[in-house]
Amino acid sequence: MKIIISQTGDQPIYAQIAVQIKHQIFNGILQSGDALPSIRKLAKELKVSVITTKRAYEELEKEALIRTVAGKGTFVTAHDQFFLHEKRVEELKEKLGPAIREAKEIGLSLQEVTALVETIFREEAP
Amino acid sequence: MKIIISQTGDQPIYAQIAVQIKHQIFNGILQSGDALPSIRKLAKELKVSVITTKRAYEELEKEALIRTVAGKGTFVTAHDQFFLHEKRVEELKEKLGPAIREAKEIGLSLQEVTALVETIFREEAP
Amino acid sequence: MKIIISQTGDQPIYAQIAVQIKHQIFNGILQSGDALPSIRKLAKELKVSVITTKRAYEELEKEALIRTVAGKGTFVTAHDQFFLHEKRVEELKEKLGPAIREAKEIGLSLQEVTALVETIFREEAP
Amino acid sequence: MKIIISQTGDQPIYAQIAVQIKHQIFNGILQSGDALPSIRKLAKELKVSVITTKRAYEELEKEALIRTVAGKGTFVTAHDQFFLHEKRVEELKEKLGPAIREAKEIGLSLQEVTALVETIFREEAP
DNA sequence: GTGGTCTAGACCACG
DNA sequence: GTGGTCTAGACCACG
C-alpha cells in the first residue's frame, strides 16, 4: 500500500495514514468492498506500531468510509457516488472555509480571492 | 486589548492570541511603533498564564511583526504597506494552498473550485 | 437447515448458529431425538469453517439441548416440556435481568418500566 | 472515584470504566462541569494502563457526556435534564429491545413478559 | 491468519 | 500539572 509517512511531527502518524487512505478511496484506487491490508501487515510495512495503524483505521470507520469485521479484516464500505461526492465537498469546505474567512478579515474582495485561488490552482503540479 | 479566547481547546491559547494581534496589525488597529501591553498585564487581562502571553509574543517576533526591547517593552515593528501586504498574501497562500491542492486531487476543475469559493465567501457573515 | 448468518461481525458466527438452533428446539421445529446435520455438512451449507459449526454444537451440548454420539451423529436431547420451559425462562431472565437492574438504577418505577416494555413489545414486528 | 473493575474478562476494562462513569452522570453523582480525574491519576488509582482510562474517556466523549480539553482536563458536559433523560431511555431500549424480541420469538404473550419483568424488578435488591 | 485489548514505559505540547 | 501520541511487546477470541 502506497503511503508516505513524515516523521517531522507536524501531524500525527495515524492521521497521515488515515488521510492518505481516504484519498485513495476518493480517487477510486480503493473501491467498495476492497480489503485493506491488516493492521499488523500495514504496521510492518510502514514500520509503525500496530496501535498506530489501528487508530488510523478507527478514524476512517468513524467517517463510515471503511468497515472492520473482527477476525475477518477491514474493507472499504459499500458506498454510492453521491455519498463520496458529499464527503469530498464536505471535506473541502472544512479546509477552504477558514482560509476564505481569513481573506475577508484581511479585507480582500471576492475578485482578489478568486484571482489568488486561480494562481495557486495553476501553480500546483497538475 | 480586544482579544477573545476560546477555551474549547481546538487551538492553543497562545496561537489564538498571536493570530488576533497579527490581524490587528494587518488591519491597522495596531500601527508601526505602537506599544503592546506587557506580557504580565495582558496575562492578567486575559486571565491566562504569563508563559502563554510570552509564547504569543515570541511567535510574532519570529515573523518580525513586533519587537521586544528589554526594559522598554514590546512594539509593533516599523513596516511599510508592501511588507504587510506580502505577509498577508503569504499567510493566505499557506491556508488556501493545501485546500486547493486537495480540490485538484479530488478531481475538481478550476471552475468548480472558484464556484465553491464564491459560495463560501458569500455564506460567511460580512 | 434454515439458518441465517450475518457477517457484519456484531456477534460471533458460532453463537449465531447456536442461538438459532436453540430457538428451533424451543419452538418445536426441532424435536426430541431429531438428528442435526453433521458439522461438516452444515459447514458446507452455511459456507463457514467446520471449526465454527463444531463450536456451535459444543455450546448447545453444554446446555444439554443436543447430544453428540461418536460415529452416529448429533441429536436433539430427549426433554419434556417442563425442561424446555425452564430453559426459556432462564434465558430470558439472563437478558431481562441486567436491563431491569439498570432501569432501577436510573430511577424508573415499575410502572415506567412495564410501560416501556409494552411499547417495545408492540413496536417490534410480530 | 468509585469504580469497580472485574478482571474476569467478560467485558473490556475500558468499557467497565466508561459505563460506571456514565451511571454516575445519570445519577447526578457527577454533575455538569464537574472535573473527572485525569487519565493518569485514574489509571494509578485503578491500577490499569493510561491507555485504558483514555479509551474509557473516549467512549464517553463519543456520546457527548464528557469533554476533554488538552492540557486542562476532562469535564462533564453541560447538559440539561431532557438530554440526560433521552440518553437514559435510549440506553435502556437498547438493552430491553433484544430481550423482548426474544420473548416474542419464544412465544410469550405481553402479559407473560410483563409478569416476568415485575418478578425480576421485585427480586433485585432495591 | 484476522482484530480486540492491554501493559509499562516514553517523549511531546501546552500552561 | 494536563492530554496526545507512540512503541514493542503480550494474550485473547474467532475461524
UniProtKB/TrEMBL annotation, chains A, B, C, D:
Listed CDD domains: WHTH_GntR
Domain HTH gntR-type residues, every copy: 11-79
SMART domains: HTH_GNTR (SM00345)
Organism phylogeny: Bacteria, Bacillati, Bacillota, Bacilli, Bacillales
Keyword Cytoplasm in annotation: no
The entry's keywords: DNA-binding, Transcription, Transcription regulation
GO molecular function (one): DNA-binding transcription factor activity
Pfam family, one: GntR
Signal peptide, first to last residue: none
Gene3D superfamilies, alphabetized: Winged helix-like DNA-binding domain superfamily/Winged helix DNA-binding domain
Name of the protein in question: GntR family transcriptional regulator
